[in-house]
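Following up on my earlier message about zinc ion. Here are the inputs again, as you asked, copied directly from the submission form:
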Amino acid sequence: MLRQRTIRRPVHAIGIGVHSGEKVRVTLRPAEVNSGVRFYRSDLGAAEPIMARANRVTDTTLSTTIGNGQHEVATVEHLMSALWGLGIDNLRVDLQGSEIPILDGSAAPFVYLIQSAGIEEQNQARQFIRITKTIEVRQGDAWARLKPFNGFKASYNFVADHPVYNRYPKRASINFANRSYVEEVSRARSFGLVSELDTAQAFNKCLGSSLHNAVGIDEFSILNEEGLRYEDEFAKHKLLDAIGDLYLLGTTVIGEFEGYKSGHGLNNRLALELLKRQEAWDYVGTGAGDESLWTQDVRPLAGALSA
Ligand SMILES: [Zn+2]
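Thanks, got it. Here's what our run produced:
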């Protein structure tokens, strides 16, 4: 059986919000079983949590924002992705600002933070959402779907005709039963064309964007001196985002995700469509013999220690 998980002790990080440009402090704290991931705007003294749930999404322009009708928290997807990767179910997130800090633009700093805090298995079984029928959402020629699969697999097709993008693989496909989220996905950074930055900034987005937190691309080249972290870093970052957006379902999916030109908006619509179509999935726990359902980085801790 896989148990629910939280972290052992509080940890914090300070960084800037990529869209607001503001300096923010985020503190992750242990939380009790069945409480899920909850965000608190402690800068506002807010007692009401913002639940990390797909039906709490209020904006998907360039990042995913959630709210509770009173307050909002922006850019939750990379933290949510890291939580999925390490199998964290329950967490309290205190935020001194309106946006989760972007740090290096990937999920790796959150992975590091959670690993530094230590992971604690709790005395309650984890529930999964098992996809039993294909669910698909479309917008123009872009689409995203979830289909039955015994484990978790994710594929993404990135489509952009640009001299830089054309030099790298535009597709990433990972079966997490035998490949590691931490090693192969978590380090993929956000990216964007410098030529589109002015437009985004005119809408008060990307105000904190820099080569410290994104891969910047001009007409012909990558501007970051260090180059790419993976050859398929662009497609992998889109997978990282989709994993984080889907983790707003409140639990891990057993199934296969496929995205074609999709982004935060379609990821959220896919999650909402799934919640609506209750005949297309069921809740299950995992028991002995279900090892195929454990992702590479999320195996029972005792088992990991004795291995
Ligand atoms: Zn992202």
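One observation from looking it over: The chain has a mean pLDDT of 93. Hope that helps, and feel free to reply on this thread.
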